[in-house]
């Protein structure tokens, strides 16, 4: 089940905790993977760990030219492009009254606009193949909101709306577009929280613990699989019951 | 010219699954041949590949009939 043999997957933000785990899960499922990110070193380390069928395609998602070039580079490296995982994301947290235009724009650019451009860039090979999987990693805060994350929550909510719209446009061509919305996941991003913050958070999570990157990756692998062909426009929440939406 | 028209016709027949005799020069992809808007995008993609040309978005919007496509490709090729 959930076999990805012969499929080619582009994963952005593959140098991060969740992204690397997504790449591992897709690769373990038999897919060839293109690992994208800004930092080349961790990408190359991951490619070395995965061995055959792993390519490094660095890109700076805040640079439109770099974004436009990425699907082409991934297609050239892998010889196909069947699965796109828009996982890359940045945060510039700040109370809204103190949030600068730049804090707002940089988060929208990377988390929403780059994802849009990448989806547009991969449509052609997917439409031709009459098969494609787009999986956007959003966040629970796109649905619930979160103080200090006006920009991030807006970008993630925007990505959900974009996914649902595109899902309707291309469903008849065998291309599905879905979101995976993580709750609190153990990564470098959440390691920065204080113990008090973590304790307060746990009180809101029925499962009583943070999630793991592996649990996000498993959801992505499912949505990327042939078995998920009838699932489109969905948001799969992986949050330990923190918000049941 | 006729060569281009034949190749355009063949693509339209294959892509839209319509009878060859319905693909006349004045046939509209959407009104006469049952295409939806995404089909027209795919047809333009197919023309680009078949003829090795690039059809900009604003030109693509004006290609609504088989004749429009043949005319544009003849001028571009």
TrEMBL record, chain A:
EC number, UniProt record: 1.1.1.100
CDD domains: BKR_SDR_c
Residues that hold NADP(+) according to the record: 38, 87, 152-156, 185
Example of a GO biological process term: fatty acid biosynthetic process
Coiled coil stretches, renumbered: none
PANTHER family noted in UniProt: 3-OXOACYL-(ACYL-CARRIER-PROTEIN) REDUCTASE (PTHR42879), 3-OXOACYL-[ACYL-CARRIER-PROTEIN] REDUCTASE FABG (PTHR42879:SF2)
Name listed for the protein in its UniProt record: 3-oxoacyl-[acyl-carrier-protein] reductase
Source organism: Thioclava pacifica DSM 10166
TrEMBL record, chain B:
UniProt xrefs under SMART domains: PKS_PP
Compartments where located: Cytoplasm
Domain spans labelled Carrier: 2-77
Main localization (coarse): cytoplasm
GO terms for biological process, alphabetical: Kdo2-lipid A biosynthetic process; lipid A biosynthetic process
Signal peptide: none
Function: Carrier of the growing fatty acid chain in fatty acid biosynthesis.
NCBIfam families: acyl_carrier (TIGR00517), PRK00982.1-2 (NF002148), PRK00982.1-3 (NF002149), PRK00982.1-4 (NF002150), PRK00982.1-5 (NF002151)
Name of the protein in its database record: Acyl carrier protein
Organism, scientific name: Thioclava pacifica DSM 10166
Name of the encoding gene: acpP
């Amino acid at each position: 089940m959930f076999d990805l043999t012969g499929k080619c997957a582009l994963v952005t933000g593959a140098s991060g905790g969740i992204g690397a785990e997504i790449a591992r899960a897709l690769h373990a499922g038999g897919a060839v993977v293109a690992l994208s990110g800004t930092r080349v070193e961790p990408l190359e380390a991951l490619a070395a760990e995965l061995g055959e069928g792993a390519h490094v395609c660095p890109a700076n998602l805040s640079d439109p030219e770099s974004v436009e070039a990425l699907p082409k580079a991934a297609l050239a490296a892998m010889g196909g492009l069947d699965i796109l995982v828009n996982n890359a994301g940045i945060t510039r947290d700040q109370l809204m009254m103190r949030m600068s235009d730049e804090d707002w724009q940089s988060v929208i650019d990377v988390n929403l606009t780059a994802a849009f451009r990448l989806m547009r860039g991969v449509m052609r090979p997917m439409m031709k193949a009459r098969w494609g999987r787009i999986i956007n990693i959003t966040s629970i805060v796109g649905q619930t909101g979160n103080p200090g994350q006006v920009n991030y929550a807006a970008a993630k909510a925007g990505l959900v709306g974009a996914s649902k719209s595109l899902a309707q446009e291309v469903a008849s061509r065998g291309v599905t577009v879905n979101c995976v919305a993580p709750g609190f996941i153990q990564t470098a991003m959440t390691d920065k929280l204080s113990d008090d913050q973590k304790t307060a958070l746990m009180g809101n999570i029925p499962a009583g613990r943070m999630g793991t990157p592996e649990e996000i990756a498993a959801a992505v692998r499912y949505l990327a699989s042939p078995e998920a062909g009838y699932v489109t426009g969905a948001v799969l929440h992986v949050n330990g019951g923190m918000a049941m939406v | 010219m006729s060569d281009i028209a034949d190749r355009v016709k063949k693509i339209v027949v294959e892509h839209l699954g319509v009878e060859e005799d319905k693909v006349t020069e004045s046939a509209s992809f959407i009104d006469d041949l049952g295409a939806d808007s995404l089909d027209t995008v795919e047809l333009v993609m197919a023309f680009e590949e078949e003829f090795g040309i690039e059809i900009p978005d604003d030109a693509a919007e004006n290609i609504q009939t088989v004749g429009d496509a043949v005319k544009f490709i003849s001028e571009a090729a």
